[in-house]
């Protein structure tokens, strides 16, 4: 079946439309009207079968441009033409856009300002958390233990599998890469030093912090951000509940307390993986591995790891909650702030890790 | 010159619709007809599945059983290409406007046009979006704004402008006046009625707003007990003597809406 399209013919000084003059059947009519040689004095609509607002608009524009009168309109067509004519007013279609160079400069300026504001805000937020902790300590009955237990489960227990797997893999990678390099000089035995010291002092804690930032820091930002959008946080404030006490503190406490545990667990698993690799590939029996580990890894390495861990936990939970609290107006912001929470948490954790390393080496815990 | 494209006088026909979420049965043996060219109001208590019914009709929700046809074409179990042809006959306005947040209002209106008519003259595309924005009752500076910059009422109007982009013959409105002030709600009712008269639209209108029901609906369908318990004008529904219908229309709010309508009719006369 042929689909009937809209059409028109030029007849002396009249333009006669025919067929269904609607959006779906318009075809190339707009282009053909652009290329019209003559300006019609009369537009005849008596042969069209259907008309919608788009068809009426095309006719309206044509009659505006050429000054032609429209004839042969049915009652509906007259009405439609009047409606589109009434809507023929200038409309702002594109937002004002600045010069590209100016735009670039303003973007750089805005990013710098945001970075500074975020850092200042984060310090202020830490102050809020300390204040809330003090308030809770003075009236311990107000503390929400169930929320903390819930967070323990989300941040800690549910992370065991993925953190364990990741740590095991990292242990394998350290052992495999280390032994390959050291074997060139016949120093395979030093693989154990590498595995022990790296896992306990640095990588176990650092990688766990990154994993917690990705799993829980992002979740905190999204949860609190959504609660801000749905006005739950405002509702809390009007009832007299402090959102920092009710939402932020349980998350910060659970992350701070759990990070040393998760970090230790992670270090342990990566040492196990390293030990298994040494046994299978370098033929070092487990008993020798453990003895050597005790000789070469000073206990201060464990203290270094365990001191860093709660600080990292605090940073991750704090940036997550802080970014969540910054969400305003729309759903897009939840996504943006969640990303910001993870990026900032990882960045801060790595910067702090470097500071800690320099510091501990200087005080003789190298 | 006829407005309705199909010979079928029924715009929507729903037969034996059944929707279940797990154990919970929302609709069972639900039948509903919407005649071409009418404004059908759909009412029902919270949780009776008004939105689910709309989602089943427009194909966002696959019903467990039943048959839905629009202008005589079945919409159940069709592939995307076939659905595209049916879809361009309808426009949907969601409760919160559901505007694409990264696009301006004008770009939002252009999305369906670009999707279905990629070869459309670019100049015409801009002009169509412009007059649709104005026809939906938005001010001329709204076209360049992003959804986040609009008030709730303006978001709804922008949602309507996008729903009307393709000049549909069938319009679905999900609680268009909810959350609007009474003046804004009345203006939206006038707008809907005006569009129906201008464009010969069939309107499927989900609402809780008794004033809208009295002012603009040709017929009203009442959802309760997992099905449509009655369809008709308000006097016809009241004759059914169903307790929910009685308390809905004869409650204090129902009577107030009735009085408002009676007054406005008197004033016009």
Class by alpha and beta content of chain B: alpha/beta
Q: What about the largest sheet of chain B? A: 6 strands, mixed
Widest sheet: strand ordering of chain B: 6-7-8-3-9-10
Characterize the main sheet of chain A.
4 strands, mixed
User: Strand portion of chain A, in percent?
Assistant: 5-15%
Count of individual beta strands of chain B: 10
How large is the radius of gyration of chain A?
A: 35 Å
Question: Uncertain spans of chain A, ≥5 residues at pLDDT below 50?
Answer: none
Name the shape of chain B in a single word.
Answer: globular
Number of helices of chain A: 12
Provide the structure class of chain A.
alpha/beta
- Largest beta sheet of chain A: what is the strand line-up? 1-2-3-4
Bin the helical content of chain A: over 70%
The overall number of domains of chain A is 2
The ordered string of helix (H) and strand (E) elements of chain B is: EEEHEEHEHHHEHEHEEHHH
What is the mean pLDDT of chain B? 85
Could you explain how this protein is built, in words?
The complex is a heterodimer of chains A (366) and B (269). Chain A is an alpha/beta fold and 366 residues long. Chain A has twelve helices and four strands; from the N terminus they run E-E-H-E-H-E-H-H-H-H-H-H-H-H-H-H. Chain A folds into two domains: 7-86, STAS domain (Transcription Regulator spoIIAA), CATH 3.30.750.24; 114-362, no CATH class. Chain A has a four-stranded mixed β-sheet. The radius of gyration of chain A is 35 Å and the shape is elongated. In chain B, the strands form two sheets. Chain B has a six-stranded mixed β-sheet, sandwiched between helices. The model of chain B is unreliable at 1-7 (pLDDT under 50). The radius of gyration of chain B is 19 Å and the shape is globular. Chains A and B meet through strand 3, helix 2 and helix 3 of A and helix 4 and helix 6 of B.
